[in-house]
Specification:
By secondary structure, the protein is of the alpha+beta class. The chain is built from twelve helices and 14 strands. The protein folds into two domains: 236 residues, Serine Threonine Protein Phosphatase 5, Tetratricopeptide repeat (Alpha Horseshoe); 208 residues, TonB-dependent receptor, beta-barrel domain (Maltoporin, Chain A), CATH 2.40.170.20. Helix 2 packs antiparallel against helix 3 and helix 9 runs antiparallel to helix 10. The relative contact order is 0.06.
Length: 538
Amino acid sequence: MRARLVVAILAGALVLVAAPETVLAQQQGAAEVKLNRGLSAFMSEQYPSAQRHFESALALDPEFAAAHYFLGLTLLQSASRLPDSPAREAMLERAVAEFEQSRLRDPQMVLSYVDAAIAETILGRFDAAESGFQSFLQERPDEPLPYLFMAVVHYRRSQDDPASLPRAIENLDKAEGALARAAQPDRDMEAHIKFYRGLVYLQQQNRQAARDAFEEGHALAPDSDIGRQSKEILDELVDRRPWELTLQVGYEWDSNVVLRGHHVRRQAGEDEDDDWRFGLGTAFTYRLVDNERFLLGVGGSTFNTWHTNIHSFDVQNYAANVYGAYSPEGAEYLTLSLRYDWDYSFVGNDSFLARHRITPQIDIQETDWTSTTIFYQFDARNYHDQSADPRLNRDGHTHAFGVVQRFELVEMFERPLTTDLSYRFENVDTDGNEFDSDNHIFALGVGVPLPWDLTFDLLNEFEVDFYKHASQFDWNGSKREDFIHTIIFALTKQFTEQLSARFQVDITNDDSNVKDSFDQEFFSYNRVTYGLSLSYQF
């Protein structure tokens, strides 16, 4: 069915760009008026109206070759819009007869060979179709289109006779050769040739070659019908296992592991602030349902770090999640999703934090180059290392709202340059009162494609936290305010589809107004980390 539709689309393109001048030089008077009205309706894709005008022209002048030709072409286009049925077949039979009548009345009407052969191809009469294309090539041997159609004929034949596939490839090669010799490039024609190469390779069980051909076809004409069909088949060819497993290892240097504040004196026996650590992470997802409308899956992850010296800050984190998404029918640009996360953390082998998060989200794909994400998140926390002072109890929950606007700006090295603008608001409510706050987080992220499958990423984030109560750590009893600036630079190298390496630098400056009587700023700190990691997706 897909092949038939493409053939019909090409038929329309052929007449609009290649109709001989002699077509419009025939007949005068009323018949020609009807012909011109029919042409106007045809070019507006008003095929029933066009058919009536061409039939009226023939009623006035049965020898009018151009009217026979365009009536046949109108019937061919109308048939392409119908499902398989006797009515469709009858319409195609009549189109073949009209093309033959146009040739009988004007032997120069060589395009009728091609259009009749297209109809014969759709009807499955491949010998007659090939004969028609060969007749056209005797008059115009350098035209690429008949070679493409003969490739289609042999591809269709291969459904019953695989031995026809080499002849399909041979004709696609001839079509590409003729196209290369043409005075003007034709990306749409190239895309059709790549599309049928992909279909032939699929028939030959060569999935990688098929993927390459469909990718090239889509890249040549991404916004055309044939480009979209190439993309649809390409998406179907992607091996969609229901599960994914990722392993990540890395080594990192941290300048301030303990987040020591400004002017906070280190006590005797305490560790230095900086240290190296080794990290190991895993992530697993399994999709229970995955189709055009619904997605339902589960997942889990682990993350562990081991320090060279400061073992009391070794981290273990274990997490699980359930997620689902729905795309409403008729609104493919819209995705509604819901996710639940649970994680449990240890610091220095002691229980530290248990969290539950629920995140409903809306994703809107406005155009091919920009999309919007809107979300709400409820985060409940339970700390296991609480202070005896109830004012410092950090248990509680956070209500967060956010929006992310993503742009794909320009194509560089066959990948888009991306930009993300985001804002997140957090309302933090704890059982104590020291850490209640309203937080505003603004971020700008840029992803820049580079040669050799490298990508440079930059994230610039600003966070402003306004605490609701006077801080017991501040000498003046002021309400705490924090301004946190984070910059992340990263360079990623993609070695294969599964293996990548990433070098990342994180720079954080937290400026808080809280000071004690000794001028110690417990919540102000500077921190720099340098890390190199490897990621492998199984």
